[in-house]
UniProtKB/TrEMBL annotation:
Pfam families assigned: Branch (PF02485)
Lipid bilayer topology: Single-pass type II membrane protein
TM region(s), chain numbering: none
Name used for this protein in its record: Core-2/I-branching beta-1,6-N-acetylglucosaminyltransferase family protein
PANTHER family, A to Z: CORE-2/I-BRANCHING BETA-1,6-N-ACETYLGLUCOSAMINYLTRANSFERASE FAMILY PROTEIN-RELATED (PTHR31042), CORE-2_I-BRANCHING BETA-1,6-N-ACETYLGLUCOSAMINYLTRANSFERASE FAMILY PROTEIN (PTHR31042:SF140)
Cross-referenced InterPro entries: BC10-like, Glyco_trans_14
Species this chain originates from: Rehmannia glutinosa
Length: 350
């Protein structure tokens, strides 16, 4: 029979492979740094997009274009398959001249490219990670690519693979581009604003401000100017340019977090930057509905197939602003068929 010391040694030997297998799943993910080559690539892209935008002659209005048929650029930020591509396909159907699609897919994830209107719409992408400034970089990369690709792109809507449309394309397009918000400073001047959530009174704001260390954000960003908001927004061309031209705030937000429990850079960079640069040009609310009731580990409520109904769609559209919610998240992939079943009669019937 084996003696006890032998059994103990043998058990420890067997445990090492298990440690390598399970420890990465238990411990928090290691910070993914933004390498110098990646940073230089992005800066070159941002510079090209900025120069092209100022040279296309389409930046005369508040919206950022004088064209009669401006477009909406839909920017998909994903690290999985685009589960709801068939639903979005119906959303875009017969509106080719009014939109463009750009997809940033994490190259380290195994993703099956969807066909149809999504074919050929993947941009040059880099690795992303939750609670990490790489998500900011990815969104800026999408904005810059869309700015450079088509001077008619006038609104830029960032959505995820878990987002769905809540209205028809016609409704979204007319709401954004044909019904500008009245400017209270001048009744004769229509004003196109960016739809981005900007909050300054959240209870977790102080912890998030200090996630990189005490006073690290100073002097560029005092606590009184730090903001929180959703990472999914709809920006005007003017504000998309503000985002890709920024260097000052980015130097702070690209720093790694010390407190990962309070680290959500993508929820702070965009609302803080635009609040500092042009608060009156933003609505301070988002057009993407998210249910934070019962959130787990920073993730919102995920809708399942049994919850999908016409009543849910009508409820998700409701907002406290003058604009209805136009998109919603977060839905599990198996919600696709129930959503498709009521797409024509409910979702796309406004």
């Amino acid at each position: 029979m084996f003696n006890t010391p032998f059994l103990l040694s043998f058990s420890l030997l067997l445990s090492f492979p298990l440690l390598f297998l399970f420890v990465p799943r238990i411990l928090p993910p290691r910070h993914v740094p933004i390498s110098l080559p990646d940073e230089l690539d992005d800066l070159a892209l941002f510079r090209r997009a900025t120069l092209a935008s100022f040279g296309d002659g389409a930046t005369l209005s508040r919206l950022g274009t004088t064209n009669r048929k401006p477009k909406i650029a839909f920017l998909f930020l994903t690290n999985t398959d685009l589960h709801f591509a068939p639903l979005w396909q119906q959303f875009f159907q017969n509106n080719e001249e009014f939109y463009n699609i750009y997809i940033h897919a994490d190259p380290y994830s195994k993703i099956t490219p969807p066909g149809g209107v999504f074919s050929g719409r993947f941009i040059a992408a880099k690795k992303t990670q939750r609670a990490n400034p790489t998500l900011i970089s990815a969104a800026r990369r999408l904005l810059a690519t869309a700015l450079l690709d088509d001077p008619l792109n006038s609104y830029f809507a960032v959505v995820s693979q878990h987002c769905i449309p809540l209205h028809s394309f016609k409704y979204v397009y007319e709401s954004l581009l044909l019904k500008p918000i009245s400017d209270t400073r001048s009744s004769s001047l229509p004003m196109y604003r960016s739809f981005i959530e900007i909050l300054d009174d959240e209870p977790q704001l102080w912890d998030r401000y200090n996630a990189r260390g005490k006073n690290v954000m100073l002097p560029e960003i005092p606590f009184s100017r730090f903001r929180i908001g959703s990472q999914f927004f709809v920006l005007t061309r003017q504000h998309a340019l503000v985002v890709i031209r920024d260097r000052r705030l980015w130097r702070k937000f690209r720093l790694p977090c010390l407190n990962l429990n309070s680290c959500y850079p993508e929820e702070h960079y965009f609302p803080t930057l635009l609040s500092m640069e042009d608060p009156d040009g933003c609505t301070h609310y988002t057009l993407t509905r998210v249910n934070w009731t019962g959130s787990v580990n920073g993730h919102p409520h995920t809708y399942r197939p049994l919850e999908i109904s016409p009543q849910l769609i009508h409820k998700l559209r409701q907002s406290n602003s003058s604009y209805s919610f136009m998109f919603a998240r977060k839905f599990s992939p198996d919600c696709l068929q129930p959503l498709l079943d009521m797409a024509d009669n409910v979702i796309f019937r406004d």
